[in-house]
Amino acid sequence: MLNDASSPLAQEILRQMLDGTTAGVAVLDRELRYSYVNPTLARMNGVPPEDHMGRTIGEVLPGIDAREDVLWQVLRDGVPREVTSSGHTRAGSDRERRYWHGAYHRIEDDGQVLGIIGIVLEVTDAREQQRDLEQARARLAMLDRAATVIGTTLDMDTTCEELATFLVPALADIATVEVIPVDGVSGLRPPPAGVLRLRRAAMAALPRLRERSRMFEAPGEYVDYQPGSAIPRCLESGRPIVENLPDDEALSRSAPDPQRVARYREAGIHSAMVIPLSARGAPVGTLTMVRSGGSPAFTEQDIVTAQDLAGRAAISLDNARRYTREHHIALQLQRALLSGPSHPHAGLEIATRYLPSGTSALVGGDWFDSVRLSPERTLLVIGDVMGHGVAAAVDMSHYSAMLRVVADEGLPPHEILERMDALMARVAAERPATCLLALVDARHGVCTYASAGHLPPAVVDRRNRLQLLDVPTGPPLGTGQGGYASYSRPCVGGDTLLLYTDGLVERRGEDIDRSLQRLTELQLPADPPLERLLDDLLERLMGCGTDAEDDVAVLAARCLPRDAR
Predict the structure, then answer these.
(1) Contact between 417 and 474 (Cβ < 8 Å)
(2) Contact 482, 420 (CB under 8 A)
(3) Assign residue 509 a region: left if phi > 0, alpha if psi is -120 to 50, beta otherwise?
(4) How far is CA 354 from CA 102, 134, 297, in A?
(5) Which residues, 6 or more positions from 141, have their beta carbon under 8 angstroms from its beta carbon?
(6) How high is the pLDDT of residue 344?
(7) Within a 10 A sphere around the Cβ of 199, how many other Cβ atoms?
(8) Which pLDDT tens digit goes with each residue over 94-132?
(9) What is the mean pLDDT of residues 528-557?
(10) Which of 330, 331, 358, 377 has the greatest CB tally within 10 Å of its CB?
């Protein structure tokens, strides 16, 4: 068509303009066959200009979605249009997909349609930038979702389960989380030299793979990894390991042991990615994701996303592991230090219960004790050190030991508290503590109480009525303020004294008076055995669908009739 220009000069000027532009230019005739391409378009297409002539776009570039339907519309109605096409030309490119944006206009001469002219620019970089931006937004959205569902508790196995469940099916067909054992492997022989032993904390799988996944270790079991396999290499290097479509020999080297290859193939597993879980510069464990069947192999984008998720999840896992370790230490320490009824007490039957709080808080400093002062005099103790964790449990042991020493001096309850408050106030490191004492004199049938900021005791009489006692309350121990008073009342045979910590009754968002009222409204069985009474009390208060947010310690003492002693 350029040959139809009005003059040789105009033709030459037009050719120079089109040949020299950095945009691709093509002229198509009325059958949409090439009649002209400039050098830029020829380079884009990877086809010499002369090989375009007389051929359609589809014949020259079968790998391109050229949107020829739009070009036919331009040819028919003469309305200019812009269109984006994509695909691959014959020009060499490392792009996964290339994109072009073209503007097309109809060419006419004296009302006769001659064809169309197209001006084309490659926009692959812009398209890839847009794609990368969209992928980044999707990755951030995934990380935001992960932050709301991973690490919702301080229980390590629950956190691992949340991580594995989140990854299936978002990134994997099967996901497992292995952690480095916190305190070694109890009850198992040590692994052979060079073998790495991890504990499988969680596993998630697509529904079609759940049955087959049961052939592997279940959560809670330990897995031994052969030297040089993928997971030990991942932990040693601190870098992801991706093995897409490995042959049997490579899969045998990466598996925990070579015998697993057949089971992997049976499950259709073809690709695996192992991501290290590290927090605060120390390894926590590994995250393994596999794909099977028709799922695609892992891409670089998958690796980036998995690393982002692993980095965030590792912090939650490490927090959970630290909590688990401290919770376990504090719980064992507290249970070791709690004093049950160590001696028979004349005229008294004693029972105790201790329930640690749930995963929302560390073990506290609750304690109880029963100190035999004479054949018929017993000091009952319940207390609660402020705070949680190992430090609170250690302080609790100090209070308990000191109170036993002071109680041996034979002082009345309020003077015991005075001495305790003065002594503990001198030790600045000790935390304050509430404490309630009940001195039972079985010979005279009297019980004398004194309280240091503790909740009131309760008495259950033989007719099954529960009453709170109005014991004067002084400040907690360790403040150095003093000011305690004793309160005495008769101990009738068959009466049951209840001393408890606040975890038994307090609930978040509820006034303490209402909490105590709920205790008095309990309908307890008539004259049950003391152990059964405690079990029933705990079931009714703690089994009502509201988890306690603090430890629970309860001491019950029943005054026996004289003829039963």
Answers:
(1) yes
(2) no
(3) left
(4) 77, 54, 53
(5) none
(6) 60
(7) 21
(8) 677 788 888 999 999 888 999 999 998 887 666 666 666
(9) 78
(10) 330
For the whole model, what pTM was predicted?
0.52
Residue with tokens 């510069």: 281
192-201 pLDDT, tens digit per residue, is 888 899 999 9
Q: Which two tokens stand for residue 352?
A: 């105790």
Closest CA to 262 of 230, 215, 224: 215
Report pLDDT for 141.
Answer: 81
Residue with the bigger pLDDT between 359 and 293: it is 293
Q: What is the Cα–Cα distance from 548 to 535, expressed in whole angstroms?
A: 16
Alpha-carbon distance of 385 to 390, in angstroms, equals 11
**291 burial via Cβ count (<10 Å: 0-12, 13-18, 19+):** buried
> Quick one: pLDDT band at residue 339, thresholds 50, 70, 90?
low
State the pLDDT at residue 359. 45
Averaged pLDDT for residues 356-366: 60
Q: Is the peptide bond before 169 cis (omega within 30 degrees of 0)?
A: yes
pLDDT confidence band for 334 (50 / 70 / 90)? low
Instruction: Please report, for residues 63, 71, 84, the alpha-carbon distance to residue 119 in angstroms, rounded to integers and kept in the order given.
Output: 19, 12, 12
Compute CA distances 337 → 124, 393, 401, 413, 434, whole Å.
71, 8, 9, 22, 17
Q: State the sign of the Cα–Cα–Cα–Cα dihedral 247, 250, 256, 257.
A: positive
Give how far the C-alpha of residue 212 lies from the chain's centroid of Cα atoms, to the nearest Å.
26
Percent of the chain with pLDDT over 90: 36
Q: Concatenated DSSP letters for 338-376?
A: -----S--TTEEEEEEEE---TTS--EEEEEEEEEEETT
Q: Are 229 and 256 in contact (CB under 8 A)?
A: yes
From CA 107, how far away is CA 530, in angstroms rounded? 103
Find the distance separating the first CA and the last CA of the chain, reported in whole Å.
Answer: 123
Contact 431, 385 (CB under 8 A): yes
Q: Which of 562, 556, 341 is closest to 444 using CA atoms?
A: 562
The DSSP call for residue 561 is P
Tell me the H-state helices in 34-154.
39-45, 57-60, 68-77, 124-149
What is the DSSP annotation of 507-543?
-TTS-HHHHHHHHHT--PPSS--HHHHHHHHHHHHHS
CA 166 – CA 296 distance, rounded (Å):
19
Which residues, 6 or more positions from 410, have their beta carbon under 8 angstroms from its beta carbon? Answer: 373
CB 431 within 8 A of CB 365: yes
